[in-house]
Amino acid sequence: MTQPPTPDAPTVLLVDDEAALADSLALWLERRYRVRVAYSGREALQTFDESVDLVFLDHNLPGLSGESVLEELSRRVDPSSFAVVMLSAAPGDELADLPVDAVLTKPVTKRDVFDAADRFVGDAPEAKLD
User: Which residues carry this modification: 4-aspartylphosphate (predicted)?
Assistant: First the structure.
C-alpha cells in the first residue's frame, strides 16, 4: 500500500475545467504530492496560496483563461516561487512565448505528468506509475 505524502511534500495545484482529467491527474499525483484541484480560473485564484510549488494550468479555460490566471498569479506572488506547466490541446509551439516552465500537449500520459512534476518539484519518494 502506498503511503500518503508527508506534510512537507510539495503542493501541486491542478487547474482544468475538464473534471475527469483534473480528477485523474489528482489521483496520480496524490501518491507523491499534496494536491489541490480547481475546475476554473476563478477557483484557481481562490485556491492558490504561497504554499503551492507547482501549477498544472489548462490554457483554454472558459471565462478566465489560463493565460489570465497566470498573469494574476504573477502579480500576487513572485513568479519564481512556483513552477507552471501549461496544459493545452494546441501544439506547444503556439504557447512558446508564455512565461511558463513547460507545456504538455493533451492528451497527457501519466509518465508526462510525473516527469514534469519531478522535474520542477522532485525529491518526492518514488511511487509506482501503474
Answer: 58
The pTM of this model reads 0.89
Is 46 contained in some domain?
yes
- Amino acid in position 88: S
pLDDT in tens, 8-55: 999 999 999 999 999 999 999 999 999 999 999 999 999 999 999 999
- 40 DSSP 8-state letter: S
Q: What is the C-alpha separation between 110 and 96, in angstroms, rounded?
A: 23
Q: State the SS3 of the chain.
A: CCCCCCCCCCEEEEECCCHHHHHHHHHHHCCCCEEEEECCHHHHHHHCCCCEEEEEEECCCCCCCHHHHHHHHHHHCCHHHCEEEEEECCCHHHHCCCCCCEEEECCCCHHHHHHHHHHHHCCCCCCCCC
Q: Residue 94's domain is classified under what CATH number?
A: 3.40.50.2300
